[in-house]
Every structure is written in structure tokens, then in C-alpha cells.
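Protocol step 4 of 6: structure prediction from sequence.
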Amino acid sequence: MTYKEALDVLIKKQSLGIKPGLTRINDLLKDMGNPQDNLRIVHIAGTNGKGTVAYTVADALSKNGCRVGLFTSPWVIDYREQIQINGKFIPEKVLADYVWQYKDYDVTEFELLTAIMYKYFSDEKVDYAIVECGMGGLEDATNVEKNNLSVITSISLDHTNFLGNTIEDIARHKAGIIRENSTCVLYPNPSVEHIFEKICRVKNTRLIKVEEIIENDYFTNNLATADAVLCVLGYNTGVTIARPPARCEIINDVFIDGGHNPAAAQAMISTPPYLKDEVAVIGMLADKDVDRYLSIVAPHCKKIITVTPNNPRAMHADSLKDVADKYCDNVVAFESVHKAVTQKDVTLICGSFFLARDARKILLNN
């Protein structure tokens, strides 16, 4: 099987959608020999910041001479970036061989990718596997290992159709990755801290609560969370933020962020360089809290160009303009993402990882 054929198999499985539950992936992993049980896993759940914390921990461990597997989603640069070891993406042939071997299992794309990740990291004998949850925690496909160091980042409302309509419901889902007699590192989450305290008490698990250094300062608090994780692992060296692609990233003087919920919007406007009088290209998916997101971002914009991201769930640029008009006096809708991104005065691109994925390619090729 070629790499292109393997991608076709994985993309075809996207039609199965999101299917919470662990039965399918557990059956596949059992046939693989349960590779996840051979790994030292740092398992990260949360609504926002989990990618940043994952990259930061992986980068620090790598600099300390460790062989580190990193699993994150969604992809921005290359599909293979979701599975990497010490910054190198899984080779095309290796991914294709795994897909060929396990393609006939009745699993979703994310379940197959997750199983391949555990198998690859086990085969490559990594020292640590840094694993980011896809969605939630309790029924997420990554939640299959026996032992881990669990990490919970910032929690807010998102994926409510799967995880519940209150922040307490969502916190309980995230807490599903906590194991008995283990350790959990908790980002400052004052409103739901009691939920994690109770669960850790019941499971006889040590809870390390990261002290909020600066209120609502996501950059500083993510850094403190990563530092706490490394201290638990026995690495007491200085930590610097390692950002994933399209998370508060600057390319050609354009600020790009794929975060799509109100908490991500708040984090973006509070991250240096702080947003002010931006000309923004914004695209969003229709199932996101578009109104609240724009109510946070739009007041920092002197002009907004709305576009339709390349995804079946995308909100059309015209509909997005109707919402943005409530918060900005200068909003226009563009049919072409390329035309929007290449406007000379654009300084901000945000609202969707699908938009960020295309925008990065356009900017880097111009």
C-alpha cells in the first residue's frame, strides 16, 4: 500500500464520524498485543491548551535526552504530524504499512490513528508517550492505557452535544483519564476544582493543583502546568513554551490561531502580541459558539473578512458576516480563502483549524 492509498483509507473512515466509546479500539489494540501497556504515558485532556502543554512537555523531555512520542490533533502542516517522535513525523511508509495491516477493522479514523500511534510508539520503544485526548476523556479513543500521569488543562464549554451542557459535566468527562493510585496535574480551574479533588480522593490519586500565577493568563498558566508535569517526571529544568502550528503562531507578520471556542478567543487576545485594530480573516464551523467567539474577537478588529473554511460543517461566509456585523462596523464576505488571506493589510487569521491549515500554506507560498 502506498502512502496516498493509506490516506485514502483513513479519509474514507471519516465518514463514520465521531463514535464515543472504547469497545472498538480495545478490540483492535488487543489484536495488536496491547502496545499501550508498554508505554510511560503522559495523558492530557482539557478544552484549551492541551496541545500547547503537550508540545512543551515533549520538547523539554527531548532536550533532556529522552526519546519522546507525541500524539496531537488536528493536523495543520501534514497529516503525519499527529504522530511524531522527537519532532520527526511518522514516516510515510511506516504509516502506510500499519494502515494496510489494520485497515479492515470496524473503527473510526481517529480510533485507527490512535491504535497505530500506540503500536508505533511501542515498536519504537519511546521513553515517554505524550498523548493528547481528541475529545473529552472518559470515552475518548486515547483512554485505553492502564497507567498514566494524567494532566488536565483549562476547561470550558465545548463539544456540548457529546460532553454535556455544563462545565461540571465536561469536567467529569475530562477526569475520565485519571487512574487509581496515580498522579494528576491540574491547571487552575477554580470553578470545577472540587470535582477533581473528589475523584482523586476516591481513586487514591495524588492531585497536584497548579497555582494560578496570573488570573486568566493562559500563556503563563500553561507554562506552569507543563513545568509541574516535568517536575513530577523528575526533570527540574527551566521550561519554555513550544507552540503547535496555528496556535498563536506568527507567519509573515500575520497572527494565526485555529482555536474556535470562546475560551480560545480569550486566550488569543491575552497572548503577546496583544490584538489591537486588526484586519482579520475569520472562518468558523457552524456547530461552534460563533456569536460568543466573535463578541470577544471582533471588538479588537477594525475590519473583518469572513470566509467559508474547507469543511462540510463550515458556516458560510455570508452567514458569518451577519453575526460579525453585530460587533464590527466593517465586515465583508469573500468567496475565496486565497483572495482573503492575500489581502495586503491582513494581520490576523482565526476561528478554525481548517482555515488555519489552508492559510498557512498560502502565506508560506507567497
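Step 5 (inspection) to follow. The two ends are 34 Å apart (CA to CA).
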